[in-house]
Amino acid sequence: MLAIELADSGVGTRIRALRGAMSMSLRDLAERSGVSAPMLSQVERGETSPTLQVASRIAAGLELRLSQLLRLDEDGAVTIVRSSDRRKGPSAAKSGHRYEILTPPLPGQRAELSRHTLAPRAVTGGPGDPPMHEPGSRETALVESGSVALVCDGERHVLGEGDCVTFDADLPHHFENPADNNEAVLLAVVSAGLRRS
């Protein structure tokens, strides 16, 4: 009884939360999914359970796969990445830039948290490098220790310990550690498709 399983899965509450997180009205989702606003409202309130076809269209309207909407490919609501299980970036001894990805590789995830360590005088990327992130991406970085300079679209911004910066990550950018003796550490969150218009 798939209809019962969908009704019991809390899919309506999840659709409402996802729609709200995307600042989408019922009418917006109806246009994007091809499912009527009254039907969407009934599903969100748990008054009716969507068929697989309707759930699939709603998922597409939310830019998700059906399995993501129904959470079929998730182990649970909480995922922990232990420090020993972090995904390390390629070794960059020559450049002095080391990083590790702190978030798990979950389907549908729109943000990634990483920790970067820059040796004295080290640089991430290069001044002429093309953007490393998809169009519409935003990056927020927090300087955990030391100081860094962000060069974004040709402008240089000096940041100290505790400073935080947010910028359009699809523009050419890199970080530099201007210190001669101290490492610099930053935490960076890259969010896909969240650029301000």
Overview in brief:
By secondary structure, the chain is an alpha+beta fold. It is built from six helices and nine strands; from the N terminus they run ααααααβββββββββ.
Distance between the termini: 44 Å
Number of domains: 2
Structural class call reads: alpha+beta
> Shape from CA axes?
elongated
Please name the CATH topology of the largest domain: Jelly Rolls
- String of helices and strands: HHHHHHEEEEEEEEE
Largest sheet: number of strands, sense, barrel closure: 6 strands, antiparallel
Number of strands: 9
The CATH H-level homologous superfamily of the largest domain: Jelly Rolls
Which whole number gives the mean pLDDT? 82
Give a structural overview.
- The chain is α+β, with helices and mostly antiparallel strands.
- The chain folds into two domains: 2-69, lambda repressor-like DNA-binding domains (434 Repressor (Amino-terminal Domain), Orthogonal Bundle), CATH 1.10.260; 83-191, Sandwich (Jelly Rolls), CATH 2.60.120.
- It has six helices and nine strands; from the N terminus they run ααααααβββββββββ.
- The strands form two sheets. It has a six-stranded antiparallel β-sheet, with no helix packed on it.
- β1 (87-88) and β2 form a beta hairpin.
- The chain is elongated and about 65 Å long.
